Amino acid sequence: MTKRGRPPTNGLRKLEVFFREMEVLYVYNQFRKAGEKHSGAVFETVQSLKHRYAISETTVKRILAEWQGVDHEMAFIVSEPTSNQIFLLGGRKCRATLTLGIGPRPTYPRVNARQRVTSDSLTDRKSS
Length: 128
Prior knowledge:
The chain is of the alpha+beta class. The chain is built from four helices and four strands.
């Protein structure tokens, strides 16, 4: 008798699933760099990718938690290539659309963070 339920993957995933996750990371980080809050960046990521994939906000959050979690010091960094790199794969030419690297997890300052009062700003207020 076979086991019921979903078969185990033992940590393996299809290549197209990995590419989709890396594209989600790239699009999310682009929205964050543009100044969007976390919830807005998640929403915009879903809106920009839903024409290509069946994706939800929960899926985006799961991908972010797995690849750029808060408890991770290092994370996958997905960016645009610095030049038009051409690779030969099996005699075929192709261009790199995204590059993948490992680096410190991106941190984005809080949009609504209170500005800290410094001694310089206090002297500026007194002289005004």
